[in-house]
Amino acid sequence: MALPPKFAGHKLLFAPPPIEPSSVPHATHTLELYLDYTCPFSAKLFRALQTVVMPLVQANPAWSKNLAVIFRQQVQPWHPSSTLTHEAGLAVLQLQPAKFWEFSAALFDAQKTFFDINVVNETRNETYKRLAKIAGGVGVDEAQVYKLLAIPDKAESQDALNVGNAVTNDLKVVTKMNRLIGVHVTPTGVFDGVVQDIGSSWGESGVRVPATQCAQLLRPRGHAVVFRLYSSKTPSSPSKIAEEVSKRQAGGAAKTKVNPAADIPERILIYHAGTGRTTFLAMLKVTTLFIGAFFCCVAIPSYIKADKPVEETAKIALCGVVPFLFVTYTTSPFVTHMHIHLPAAARTSRAVLERFVRAGMPPSTPVTVTTMSAIGKPRYSTMQAGDFVPARQRFGLVNYTRNTAAENASRKWYELRAVSRFHVPDAGVKVSKAKKGERNLVEPWIWDVIKEKVAKRNGPPGGAS
Length: 465
Known about the structure:
Layout: E1 11-13, E2 29-35, H1 40-59, H2 61-64, E3 67-73, H3 82-95, H4 100-109, H5 116-119, H6 124-137, H7 142-149, H8 168-181, E4 188-191, E5 194-196, E6 219-221, E7 224-226, H9 238-248, E8 267-272, H10 275-305, H11 310-331, E9 337-341, H12 350-360, E10 366-372, E11 378-384, E12 389-393, E13 398-401, H13 405-409, E14 421-422, H14 444-458
Parallel strand pairs: 2-3
Antiparallel strand pairs: 1-3, 2-4, 4-5, 6-7, 8-9, 9-10, 10-11, 12-13, 13-14
Helix pairs in contact: 1-9, 3-4, 3-6, 3-7, 6-7, 10-11
């Protein structure tokens, strides 16, 4: 079954597709695993996938380029907390798709804490808070996850008494897709569109891939692949099995060289203000800081000790404070760097990356914006691509803003307020075209696409200066 772009984080690829001069697109075999976070057998299967199957596939290039695994979230209503746990998975998918598999592993490890007897005395929102904390443990914003999951205790109107939360619509889509296949219990496996009897006992103590039979796992036979799993004890060293199988397959599929240009990282630099411009700005901030310190700590005390008139002392104080405040006010929105965080499905090749950015990139795609504090220290603002709003403020020194009310509300009184105003010059650093086989250090075209989408969604910039 097809996978909608907004659920791209469900898909796991082991290698970028080979670059071949052919009009026939490269296609992988697809293993779809229908799992439930509150099902103990699903947990066993997920661990077996991580500890047995994935090391074997990753160790063999002939296998890794021919397989894709899709995590299908299957809610089982006889487990009351099943719906809540899957909603948390969808919340992570909205905020940071690249963290979905890591979050799933953490949730399966904490699975027993969400069994019936452990949730019977807590409210729905209390369960959501525990799920958000697990998401926070793998690097996802805990407050944002809870914001997507929480149910208000008061409705705005009588029509809003049963509307669910911010991931309810995604859960409806996932459930509808699973019903089209007719999946009832977990775990269920679908290989290349055909339901397979993988057995609910396939897990940590229920899988064996013998060295003599391991070649049956994802062995290319023309355009066919035979997928077999054997029930017995888990092998203690999957790497040795993979090595033995690789030797048995010597003389088979030719080794494929991975193109360095297709090795796309999860975090890509999409905007760079330039080293010279950034260095000058940092030196200017530090200089005004030292000037202010000199006047406040040396000049002013000497004037006070010499009993100088108050007017002269005040003028000396202004000479130190005004430059610092002016530079801080005018340069605080200046953006030095901008990174985008990509899901695994968008990093398989340059062509897939461009298709994702231009056509399938959701507004929830994570972006990290770097500015400078008053002392020249980098400040990192993690936000979503759809948070940018065109504006014209501070006499043109601000051209983008974002709403930080929710983020500031979760911060302590002594913490700095979140950066809400940005200045991104139209002309960033010029990037020379990468040589053949190399990858660009900066991908400014991605920021250009985001700018166009932001402009279309929000219209012309406005705001007070």
